[in-house]
Amino acid sequence: MIYVDGVLFPEENSSSSFSSSSQGSSLLVNVMTHPVIISASESFKNLEEQRVTESSTEEDRYVYIFQREYAVVNPALVDFVGMDEATTCVGLVIRNRRSGVTSIAHMDSPKVVDLGISQMLSLVLEDDSDASDLDVHMVGGYEDVDIKNGGGGGDYAKPEGYSFPLCCKLVETLHKRRENFHIQTLFVLGHNTKLDAQGNTCPIFNGCLVNTSTGAIHPASFNRSSRCPDDLVRRVRVSASFEDPSWRGKLLDTYDAKTDRFIIAPCCWTMRLVEYVWELNQLPDELILVNCSTSPSAEGPDFVDNERRIWKYLLKYPEWSKTFPKRQPRVFERTANGSWKIY
Length: 343
What we know:
The chain has helices at about 25-30, 35-45, 55-60, 115-120, 165-175, 230-240, 270-280, 285-290, 305-315; strands at about 1-5, 5-10, 50, 60-65, 70-75, 80-85, 90-95, 100-105, 135-140, 180-185, 195, 200-205, 210, 215-220, 250-255, 255, 260-265, 330-335, 340. By secondary structure, it is α/β, with parallel strands linked by helices. It has a single domain (about 1-265, about 325-340), classed as CATH 3.30.1330.200. The strands form four sheets. The protein has an eight-stranded mixed β-sheet. A five-stranded mixed β-sheet has the order 3-14-13-6-4. Strands 16-17-18-19 form a four-stranded antiparallel β-sheet, with no helix packed on it. Pfam families: N_Asn_amidohyd.
């Protein structure tokens, strides 16, 4: 169930019908155009983007997640949790108001939403109860295609692009579940869209950072050294998970809330993927953008470099068992100075 400004949404007397195939899109548009959500989006847009560096992680305890990952964190062990590098992806945050336990995911496809939200809620709900009040924030996704909403009068039955179908699925899934989801931030699509110097649409913000003690959320970006630990293997895992049937429809297990350790679950890949990335690595940078990104004009300056880093790793270690011997996870524990060491 979805609440906006403390009121169940849609209201019981609403004449809207959400039984059709356009359920998610109609619901999304109605929530996005709610005055409280519009006001929250304007406030979020005016916040200064927090830039997280390695020095930041030395002062406070951070957990960072990559694409298709999720983490549930305990505010007694973690000060901040965040993500970035989202263009057509969406950062989803769910926080238990009473306990402060916070779950965050970097959603990249409607296919992982149903199981992914169940994974996110595994430690957020108290005593398997669905009566907890849960605050929800969504940041990311932008108008990567023209969406003529006309105040909700357009045809949303067959949305195109990547951002819109993902946002529809997220809102629809939350609406159908029994838990009480209070939408606080919906900074997606039109709320999160600007024009670049060439007139292309792109996101205003690509990430977010949550203070686990207060629940406050800010736009954020992370530099390479703060996207840790094991950043390269975790990026490889995102690419390889599409081939690994054990991760079909799921978010990638990454962090253990009880021990404050990164437990990076194993993922396997095939020689087919290795051969494919060898071919991709021969392409010039401009073709890599076109072939490997859902939003070529909106990617950050290090996108191609990160892709090549992934491919070089796969070419160097074509056998997945070298990375995950005996299909065991890679475990990292936090040190006294805030860095991570392999356990």
